[in-house]
Recover the amino acids of this structure.
């Protein structure tokens, strides 16, 4: 670690400490406080480190706080995900860090967002791959799964093996995506539940889970056999939804000018008449 | 490095023929003979004259500048590998990849182009607008034509008179803190030699910037609901979703209004007025 980054960690901690109002962490606001924010002794006591150690952190003499210490400080300072990432960066800890809790609910705004693409399927998933909101083409595309959790559907719905023309690679991607998600959201109860159900009901999942590589679920291509329009070649592009940690918006495109594009338009017309 | 004019001409023609009208949001039309785009159409997409583009395909004319090449790469919806190839055909080194890259992937570009009547833009992590939908231009004006450090909204915020006019005045203090906090994070992430660090250096004599910078605030998220003051339709309250493309660290910003709201009506009006700013 370089001299300057050591200095910055101390400066950053001092600035964070100055911004915490004592009453928000259960301390009396108290008159006669000379410092703005918390005292060093208070930070040490509330984050479970010795005063001496904390002082050395702020002075840049201690350079390698552990993940536990960084998490404790981040919690005490009420840092959000960006703040946590910054602190972890300064402490040379990226990426083994707790990103806080994922968001529970989808908002009306996300629903409005997916509607902005009337001719392209778009779905927002949570960290456990429950579809939270989707546009009409999105729900038409995955109609075989009836709005159920996508990871559970891939392994446990018998229809999945007809729907995905290359099921083994989809299964592998799905296990990899869940593993990746677990790394980021270790405390998600829903994610733990989905993984538990998969272990209990799918030997194939357990096998993949045991030896799968960690892969982020970003852009990939998938071939599906849709019950209404037949074979579709899909190109997926995923986005992190900044306002809702843990949420991922996936947009499914088809190669321009391809038969898949035509079939997707037909699916659009069909879904319109059914709506 | 040598220039391969024949190779360049063939490459351009082939890429143009492969590009479908749907790729770029054009109607296919009945009279289109081949699947590909016409030279005139590609020239518009590349921000150059038909004449200039035609000469490139015919191995005539002057050697394009790096800026021109970047513009062609974007206009023809090239992938990063194809863009690098285009640069090498012109005897130039391929531009750097990574977080500062100004090249939008073809997939993301199509997603932007397929946004129907919705203001949207693609921005880099330094707040440089790379591309806008027509409604995006109608909303905030053309933000893609700035050069140098002024490409970054955070830099314009502190240096250009009028840069804040588009934002409701009561939000200015928050936005000041937000830009600075964001710049601090990116600077820490990308290091002392990064473009972000250069922006910080350029702003060091700005008193307001410096005072805010010294507060060490990070993690200030952009508000989801944004208030703008449009020169023609007035106050607008829009929801802004920031979607991060993890592959290239570009963000897609999509602005929506609640159906039936006053801002919704105003957006409709804007779509009629078009990009007249």
């Amino acid at each position: 670690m370089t001299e300057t980054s050591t200095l910055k960690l101390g400066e950053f901690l001092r600035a964070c400490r100055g911004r915490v109002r004592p009453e928000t962490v259960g301390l009396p606001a108290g008159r006669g406080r000379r410092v703005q924010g918390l005292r060093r002794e208070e930070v040490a006591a509330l984050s479970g480190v010795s005063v001496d150690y904390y002082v050395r952190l702020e002075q840049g003499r201690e350079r390698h706080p552990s993940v536990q210490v960084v998490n404790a400080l981040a919690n005490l300072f009420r840092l959000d995900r960006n703040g946590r990432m910054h602190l972890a960066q300064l402490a040379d800890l990226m990426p083994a860090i707790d990103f806080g809790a994922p968001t529970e609910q989808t908002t009306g705004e996300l629903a409005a967002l997916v509607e902005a693409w009337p001719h392209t399927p778009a779905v927002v998933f949570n960290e456990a791959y429950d579809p939270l909101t989707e546009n009409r083409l999105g729900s038409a595309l995955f109609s075989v799964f009836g709005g159920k959790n996508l990871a559970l559907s891939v392994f446990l719905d018998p229809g999945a093996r007809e729907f995905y023309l290359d099921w083994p690679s989809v299964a592998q991607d799905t296990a990899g995506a869940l593993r990746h998600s677990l790394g980021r959201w270790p405390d998600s109860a829903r994610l733990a539940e989905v993984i538990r159900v998969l272990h209990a009901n799918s030997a194939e999942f357990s096998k993949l889970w045991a030896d799968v590589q960690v892969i982020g679920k970003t852009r990939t291509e998938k071939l599906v056999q849709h019950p209404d329009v037949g074979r579709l070649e899909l190109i997926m592009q995923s986005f992190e939804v900044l306002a809702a940690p843990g949420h991922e918006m996936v947009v499914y495109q088809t190669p321009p000018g391809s038969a898949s594009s035509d079939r997707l338009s037909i699916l659009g017309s069909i879904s319109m008449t059914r709506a | 490095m040598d220039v391969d004019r024949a190779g360049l001409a063939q490459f351009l023609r082939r890429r143009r023929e492969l590009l479908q009208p749907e790729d770029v949001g054009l109607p296919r039309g009945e009279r289109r003979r081949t699947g590909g785009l016409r030279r005139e159409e590609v020239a518009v997409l590349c921000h150059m004259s038909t004449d200039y583009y035609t000469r490139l395909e015919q191995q005539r004319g002057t050697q394009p500048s790096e800026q021109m090449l970047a513009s062609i790469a974007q206009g023809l919806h090239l992938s990063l590998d194809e863009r690098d190839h285009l640069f090498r055909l012109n005897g130039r080194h391929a531009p750097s990849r990574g977080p500062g890259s100004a090249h939008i992937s073809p997939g993301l570009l199509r997603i932007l182009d397929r946004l129907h009547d919705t203001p949207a833009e693609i921005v880099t992590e330094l707040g440089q607008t790379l591309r806008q939908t027509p409604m995006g231009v109608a909303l905030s004006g053309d933000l893609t034509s700035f050069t140098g450090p002024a490409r970054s909204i955070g830099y314009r915020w502190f240096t250009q008179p009028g840069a804040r006019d588009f934002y409701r005045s009561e939000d200015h203090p928050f936005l000041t803190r937000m830009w600075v906090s964001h710049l601090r994070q990116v600077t820490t992430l990308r290091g002392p030699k990064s473009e972000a660090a250069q922006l910080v250096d350029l702003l060091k004599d700005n008193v307001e910037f410096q005072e805010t910078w010294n507060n060490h605030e990070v993690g200030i998220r952009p508000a989801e609901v944004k208030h703008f003051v449009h020169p023609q339709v007035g106050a607008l309250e829009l929801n802004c979703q920031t979607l991060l493309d993890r592959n290239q660290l570009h963000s897609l910003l999509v602005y929506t209004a609640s159906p039936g709201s006053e801002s919704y009506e105003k957006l409709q009006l804007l779509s009629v007025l078009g990009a007249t700013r």
Q: What stands out?
A: The longest strand of chain A covers residues 230-241. The domain at 108-274 of chain A is CATH 3.30.450.180 (Beta-Lactamase). The two ends of chain A are 59 Å apart (CA to CA).
